[in-house]
Amino acid sequence: MGRPPCCHKVGVKKGPWTPEEDIILVSYIQENGPGNWRAVPINTGLMRCSKSCRLRWTNYLRPGIRRGNFTTHEEGIIVHLQSLLGNRWAAIASYLPQRTDNDIKNYWNTHLKKKLKKQQAMGAIFAPPPPPPSSSAETAINLPGAVHLDNHHHRYHHDAIAASSSTVDHGCYAACSNPEVTQQHTTITMRRSPFADVAADCSSSSYASSMDNISRLLDGFMKSSPPTATDVKPNIAVVSDPFMSFDRISGTGTELAFVPGVQQQQQQPVLMGGISYDDEATRQQQQLHHQLPLCSIEKWLLDEAAEQVADLMDLSDGGCSSLPLLY
DNA sequence: AATTGGCCCAACCGCTCCGAA
DNA sequence: ATTCGGAGCGGTTGGGCCAAT
């Protein structure tokens, strides 16, 4: 179809954002909540396109972003998830609530990719990781995560995360790229990512920047403004709707599966920076999710495997030569 | 002290998806 | 069923920073 750029080139400012622009943007979002990005430059007078405003917010200004060096644990998570999900940075970022997909992508491209390359060049004494799911829709891998894809609801089903369609991994289901297989599965599971807990501790996160978290300059930020339908994007949000599709929750610490045939509902975000719940039912739902057993990917993220990765990365030359052991 | 080259990361570009009309 | 516009995602770029020379 082809469509013109989201913004006309004329009169649209590009390049680095100034502190003044940041404050204008944050002030506006404080009052109106994130979302409806089209209206942002119009209502604020910012000479930026809507896309630029959204990116600035999601990658830099929103609360809860952690900046600075990645820990070895985070590295392990990224490498592992990248092997499982491919370059699905938004999905990977959902397991690292304090990191943006852009940050993870940059870190992968500038650090981790090199490390892995170096490691492979050094001898490849370990079995190579499986090809990224996107490389072959027919390649079946065991995805320990409880992501179950519905053909009509998930944009990623095409390239996928192929599935061991018949295997139930400790109660968790593999993602599936095969529509025929996908549509057969009707089970939904939803658990709260263990890393969502990290997000709740926004106050302790290091947000080092020249603006030093401009949002904090504004008193009572995100407290006075009720969450909107698009508030889900910030990583500090945890989705309360178990039927929400995966592609709508990138950036959250929630793991989802799908129920084919169930109408995709509008997201009903629960802002967790505070932490507040929409209502009692939601709170109970959250508690229930806490009680559910962890699926294996989350186990991996939590248990000794991750520590093993960190330890081995520390011991190995260049950092991550041992990671393929995980596969 | 000046220059150069590599690294890093914020931001842009282009594409796809999805919902509304 | 088709078109259109908003939003999101992943790839890429360009400019600033910094270490090496």
From TrEMBL:
Cellular-component GO terms for this entry: nucleus
SMART domains found in the cross-reference section: SANT
Domain HTH myb-type: residue ranges: 9-65, 66-116
Pfam family, one: Myb_DNA-binding
Domain spans labelled Myb-like: 9-61, 62-112
InterPro entries on file: Homeodomain-like_sf, Myb_dom, Myb_TF_plants, SANT/Myb
UniProt keyword list: DNA-binding, Nucleus, Repeat, Transcription, Transcription regulation
PANTHER family found in the cross-reference section: MYB FAMILY TRANSCRIPTION FACTOR, MYB-LIKE DNA-BINDING DOMAIN CONTAINING PROTEIN, EXPRESSED
Protein name: Uncharacterized protein
Gene from which this protein is expressed: LOC123115962
